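Hello, quick one for you while I still have it in my head. No rush at all, and the record is pasted right below.
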Amino acid sequence: MALFRRKRRSSPAVSSAGQARHQPWFDHGLANGETVTCGRCAGELGVRLQSQSSVTVSHDGALDGIALICTECGRLICRDCALAASDNPYLPKCHHCGGGVTIPMSR
């Protein structure tokens, strides 16, 4: 029987080229409680920053009016626009680039 140790990633994540990888879910410059607009429908959204160690369990209506951020391009979008861009109702996506979306996180 062998024991395995998980290697810890240093922060910020570094690409093979040696440059820091862009992480829009962290590097967004948003403040908790700030009001922003959806990048697709221009609806008003509230920013609710999530800590890195928390786990979000969502249900219908839990993300209404909450800003989601694309993990690829960094656009802010609402739940309805993210779900409309996806074929899977459990996997919202960015309408612009097709990247995954998440709640913006605090450092």
Remarks:
- Confidence is low (pLDDT under 50) at residues 4-15.
- The two ends are 38 Å apart (CA to CA).
